[in-house]
Amino acid sequence: MRPVRAVHLGLGAFFRAHQAWYTDRAPDADDWGIAAFTGRSATLAERLRAQDCAYTLVTRAPDGPTYERIGSLAAVHAASEQEAWLHHLSRPEVAVVTITVTEAGYGTDPAGAPARLVAGLAARRAAGTGALSLVPCDNLPHNGEVLRAAVRELATEPGLASWIDDHVDFVTTMVDRITPATTDADRAEVREATGFDDLAPVVTEPYSEWVLSGAFPAGRPAWDATFVDDVAPYEQRKLWLLNGAHSLLAYAGLLRGHETVEQAIGDPVLHGWVEEWWDEASRRLPQDPAETRAYRAALLERFANPAIRHLLTQIAMDGPQKIPARILPSLRAERAAGRLPTGSTRVLAAWAPHHTPGPAEVAIDRALDLVAPDLRDDAELRDAAVALAAGGFEARR
Ligand SMILES: NC(=O)c1ccc[n+]([C@@H]2O[C@H](COP(=O)([O-])OP(=O)(O)OC[C@H]3O[C@@H](n4cnc5c(N)ncnc54)[C@H](O)[C@@H]3O)[C@@H](O)[C@H]2O)c1
Ligand SMILES: O=P(O)(O)OC[C@@H](O)[C@@H](O)[C@H](O)[C@H](O)CO
C-alpha cells in the first residue's frame, strides 16, 4: 500500500473518477496514498475494503470503453470512524485533504464537512502538526472561500481560528468530469470485461479538467492539472455553461418526458433552449468568443455521448443549492441591464414546479422567496416566469 499522505472526505463516484484518478496517474503516485472517508453511509467503504481499496474506472468514449484499475486508495473508512479521521488529520505526513460532499455539504450543521474538518484541525493543532491544504472539489463558486468562512465560523475553541489562519491553505478549484451514479448493469459489464467481480466500479467520460489555486505549503501530488492565480474565469464558464445547461435539461427535460441528458439534448426544443441560455450566459464570460464557441461545441458532444447514461433525476437534486450558482448571476445581471432574459427565466420556471408542485404562481413565488428574495418584487420577471411555468413545457408527442 502507498503511504497515506492525502485524505479525502466524501468517498463517492466523482472522487473516484477524478481526484483519485489524477493521484493514481501522477508521476509520484507511489508516494501518495489516500485515506478516503465516506460522507454518510458506510457501504462504499465496506465494499472497497473487501477488495483492498482497488476499483475499476470505466471510461466510456462514444466508440467504446476502457478499463483501468485505480490503486491510489490506501485506506477507506466510514464517516462514523471518528478516531481514524482524527488520527489521519493529525499525522505530519498528511499534506492535503480533498473534499466532495455535494453543494449541500458545506453548511455549518454538526454533520456537514466544515464541522468534521474543524474537529480534525483541532486534533492536528493539539498534536503540534503543521500546515495542511484543504481542497474542496464541489461545484460551488469560490469553494475555497466558502469552506474557509464555514470552518472559521465553527472554530470557536480558543486560539483555533488564528492557528487555522496560520496553518491552513484553502484551495479554490474548478472540477469537471461527468460521472453518473454506478448501476448494477455497470458492475455486470466490468465483471464480464475484466473478470474482476468489482463491487465498486465507477463510470466516467474521457473528458477531465481540474483547475486549482492554492499555495500547498506541505506539498501535493504532481497532479496533471492546471494551477492558476484565479480560478474564477474557469469556474464561471463551467458552472454557467455546463452545470447551468445540465439544470435546464434536468428540469425541462423531466417535464418533457426524458430520462437522461443524452435524450434531453437530442430533443430539438431543449437543444434550442440550451443555446438560448448559453447565448445569454456567454455575454458575461471573460473568454474570447471563439474559445467560448469551441467550449459550447465540445459540451454538446459530451452531453450527447451515447455511452454515458446520466439521469436527469440525479442532476435535479438540491436545486436550492445549485440554481443560485448556475443561473442567478446571469439573471440578475440581465435585469440590472434592463433586459428580461428568457434563457435564465426559463430555468427558474422549469425548476419551480419541480420544487413546489401546484399552481404556477405559487411555485414561482416560492422559488423566488427561496433563492432570490431580492427579485421577489420584480413584477415583470415574476409574470414572465409564471407564464413560462404555466405553459412552456408541453410534453413530447
Ligand atoms: N458526478 C459528477 O459528474 C461531478 C462532477 C463534478 C463535480 N461533482 C461534485 O461532486 C459532488 C459529489 O458527486 P458524486 O457523483 O461523487 O456523488 P455521490 O453521491 O457518489 O457521493 C457524494 C458523497 O458526498 C457525501 N455527502 C452527501 N451529502 C453530504 C452532506 N450533507 N454532508 C457530508 N457528506 C455528504 C456522500 O455521503 C458521498 O460520500 C457533486 O455534488 C458535485 O459537487 C460531481
Ligand atoms: O454533481 P452535481 O449534483 O453538483 O450536479 C450534477 C451535474 O450537473 C454535475 O455533476 C456535472 O455532471 C459535473 O459538474 C460535470 O463536471
Automatic annotation (TrEMBL):
The protein's UniProt keywords, in alphabetical order, are:
NAD, Oxidoreductase
Which Gene3D superfamilies does the protein's record reference?
N-(1-d-carboxylethyl)-l-norvaline Dehydrogenase, domain 2, NAD(P)-binding Rossmann-like Domain
Where is the Mannitol dehydrogenase C-terminal domain positioned along the sequence?
230-356
PROSITE patterns per record: MANNITOL_DHGENASE
**Which InterPro entries does its entry note?**
6-PGluconate_DH-like_C_sf (IPR008927), 6PGD_dom2 (IPR013328), Mannitol_DH (IPR000669), Mannitol_DH/Oxidoreductase (IPR050988), Mannitol_DH_C (IPR013118), Mannitol_DH_CS (IPR023027), Mannitol_DH_N (IPR013131), NAD(P)-bd_dom_sf (IPR036291)
Q: List, for all copies, the residue spans of the domain called Mannitol dehydrogenase N-terminal.
A: 5-224
- Which molecular function terms from Gene Ontology are attached? oxidoreductase activity
Which family is this protein grouped under? Belongs to the mannitol dehydrogenase family.
Instruction: Identify this protein by name.
Output: Mannitol-1-phosphate 5-dehydrogenase
Q: What is the organism of origin for this protein?
A: Nocardioides hankookensis
